[in-house]
Amino acid sequence: MDKLNILWTNADILTSEKMVMMYATNSMLSKWWDEVTVIIWGATAQLVAENKDIQTYIKMAQQAGVTFSACKACTDQLGVSAEVAALDIEIIYWGEGLTELLKNGEKLLTI
Fold first, then answer.
1. 8 Å CB contact between 60 and 25
2. Strand order of the sheet with strand 90-92?
3. Which residue, of 6, 29, 65, 76, has the greatest Cβ tally within 10 A?
4. Which residues are CB-contacts of 103 (< 8 A; sequence separation ≥ 6)?
5. For 67, phi and psi rounded to 5 degrees?
6. CA 1 to chain centroid
7. Torsion sign (Cα): 90, 94, 100, 105
8. pLDDT tens per residue, range 48-96
9. pTM of the predicted model, to two decimals?
10. Inter-residue contact 81 to 55 (CB < 8 Å)
């Protein structure tokens, strides 16, 4: 299976809209990848919880088949776990999972 993981750590709105959301969504719609997972890490958790435009982009990406997962340590520390979970986004501890992705040589795009 052709799978891409996007580690999204840059909370800049334009980068989020014009790179992360655009590429993830179009990757699924155009069948560039069989599976795309966006990993929300750091300040992006707060952006996701607070920005209605980003939430709309996430919903469109989810409808296209993109999976979203957020770092639990980040959402807890930023106090946004409930808001992120309400967007049908998985919340898990990602440290070990990210390490496995890297050690296994999986496709990882870091933004």
1. yes
2. 90-92, 67-71, 35-40, 3-8, 107-110
3. 6
4. none
5. -100, 140
6. 19
7. positive
8. 999 999 999 999 999 999 999 999 999 999 999 999 999 999 999 999 9
9. 0.97
10. no
